[in-house]
Write a structure and sequence with these properties.
The protein is of the alpha/beta class. The protein is built from three helices and seven strands; from the N terminus they run E-H-E-E-E-E-E-H-E-H.
Length: 102
């Protein structure tokens, strides 16, 4: 069954109503990663690359998404069409690191 990942649980419920029972729709509940506090956010010895971490309140969300992705035949990232939505989709993709994500 295809999986669609959106930003909010309200959107997930609405979209699942449109797509029907042939799709599973889940939410990332917004951003899933952030820069850590303090001096660990940027790796100054590695071309100043940012270091992202899963926020404490999103560990269960990520665990659930990983389980859903494992069982999905295809995964669609359907975030909002703005910079924030693009960032959320990128972080989900980077963290889940699945080839079936589109």
């Amino acid at each position: 069954m295809p999986l669609v990942i959106v930003e909010s649980p309200a959107k997930a419920k609405t979209i699942e109503g449109y797509l029907g029972k042939d799709f599973k729709v889940a939410s990332s509940y917004g951003h899933v990663r952030d820069l850590p506090k303090g001096d660990k956010a940027i790796d100054i010895n590695n071309r100043f690359n940012p270091t992202y971490v899963v926020t404490a309140d999103k560990k269960a969300v990520i665990k659930n998404l990983k389980a859903l992705v494992k069982d999905a035949e295809m995964v669609y990232l359907a975030s909002d069409d703005d910079r924030e939505g693009e960032a959320i989709a990128w972080h989900v993709k980077e963290y889940l690191n699945e080839k079936k994500l589109i």
